[in-house]
Amino acid sequence: MKLFSRTQTPFDALRFCTSWLISPALLFCFRAVISLYTFVATFVILGEDNAQSASTARHDFSYFTNLTYWGLAFYFGFAAMHTAIYWRSGHAFLAQWPKVLQIAHSVFYSTIVVFPLLVTSMAIASFNFLGFCVNCFQLSSGV
Question: Looking at residue 102, what DSSP letter applies?
Answer without folding.
Answer: H
